């Protein structure tokens, strides 16, 4: 996909996510919208993973440590053919459904249970070490939240990744400065994240995490440092829905009917602008 097509895909998937959450009255709305551009860039432009080679040798691995932003991931997996969209839309967050509020390996396309924050980076380190031992050319991508950086296990994994020179590992922080109870700098200040990871020996990069063109460039940029890479992706929580943007309350807020219709209208307007480009 070219950049315009990727931008359109991000709007389309934000709209589907908005509809899924409203329909089933469950989901982490602000978090989904925040990281949508990152996931679209990974799945439609960067990773070599497909429904046919999923889980095989030399196939890239994606681990979503911020597992609560699952709805946007489900919609991408449906769009890419890993899961059936009708099944997702009928059974999301229902009794005995595999499509629950955090990632589970009962869903094709998901390789690890996550959601208990702080675990994803350690899993990524393990997969990256195993790949080097097995001479497997897969690259491992881990998405974390910025509130998640308060977990001590993150920093144990960061130290190990640097120690073992895991240049086949790229971690991305969805840095929207908000978490469920407020601003990250108030709840548990983790900034400056770049300086912290740099002191652990990581290759530190920073990008506008809602700019798909910039994301394509940084995620395709060769890593010649022989060290793991961390990308601090500066994003807007609730991106794409004006009244949800930069609002901590939308971390887990479900749109009412009026908000739902307003959000749909805004996303349709954004798509119309791109269609006229």
Description:
The chain has 277 residues and is of the alpha/beta class. It has a single domain, classed as Thiamin diphosphate (ThDP)-binding fold, Pyr/PP domains (Rossmann fold, 3-Layer(aba) Sandwich). It has helices at residues 3-24, 29-46, 70-79, 85-91, 120-133, 152-163, 184-187, 193-199, 212-219, 257-275; strands spanning 61-64, 140-145, 169-175, 178-179, 182-183, 203-208, 229-234. Strands 1-2-3-7-6 form a five-stranded parallel sheet, sandwiched between helices.
What structural keywords apply?
277 residues; alpha/beta; five-stranded parallel beta sheet; two-stranded antiparallel sheet; 44% helix
What integer is the average pLDDT? 96
User: What is the number of helical segments per DSSP (H or I, 4+ residues)?
Assistant: 10
Number of strands: 7
Q: Which CATH class applies here?
A: Alpha Beta
User: What's the CATH architecture name?
Assistant: 3-Layer(aba) Sandwich
Largest sheet: 5 strands, parallel
Q: State the distance separating the first and last CA atoms.
A: 16 Å
Q: Output the structural class.
A: alpha/beta
Rg, Cα atoms, Å: 18 Å
- Order of strands in the sheet with most strands: 1-2-3-7-6
Number of domains: 1
- Please, what is the oligomeric state? single chain
CATH topology: Rossmann fold
Low-confidence stretches: none
How much beta, percentage-wise?
5-15%
The CATH homologous superfamily name equals: Thiamin diphosphate (ThDP)-binding fold, Pyr/PP domains
- Percent helix: 40-55%
């Amino acid at each position: 996909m070219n950049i315009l097509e990727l931008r359109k895909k991000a709007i389309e998937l934000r709209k589907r996510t908005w509809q899924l959450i409203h329909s089933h009255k469950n989901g982490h709305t602000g978090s989904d919208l925040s990281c949508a551009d990152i996931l679209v860039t990974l799945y439609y432009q960067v990773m070599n993973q497909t429904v046919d080679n999923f889980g095989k040798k030399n196939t890239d691995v994606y681990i979503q440590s911020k597992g609560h932003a699952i709805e946007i991931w489900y919609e991408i997996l449906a769009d890419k053919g890993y899961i059936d969209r009708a099944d997702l839309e009928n059974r999301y967050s229902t009794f005995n459904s595999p499509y629950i509020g955090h990632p589970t390996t009962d869903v094709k396309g998901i390789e690890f249970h996550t959601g208990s924050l702080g675990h994803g980076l350690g899993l990524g380190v393990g997969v990256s070490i195993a790949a080097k031992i097995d001479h497997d050319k897969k690259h491992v991508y881990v998405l974390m939240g910025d509130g998640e950086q308060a977990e001590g296990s993150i920093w144990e994994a960061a130290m190990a990744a640097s120690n073992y020179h895991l240049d086949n590992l790229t971690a991305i922080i969805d840095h929207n400065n908000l978490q469920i109870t407020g601003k990250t700098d108030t709840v548990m200040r983790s900034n400056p994240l770049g300086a912290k990871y740099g002191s652990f020996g990581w290759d530190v990069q920073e990008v506008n995490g809602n700019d798909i063109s910039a994301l394509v460039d940084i995620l395709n940029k060769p890593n010649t440092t022989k060290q793991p890479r961390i990308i601090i992706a500066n994003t807007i929580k609730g991106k794409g829905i004006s009244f949800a943007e930069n609002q901590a309350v939308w971390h887990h807020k479900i749109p009412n009917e009026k908000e739902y219709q307003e959000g749909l209208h805004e996303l349709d307007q954004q798509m119309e602008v791109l269609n006229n480009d």
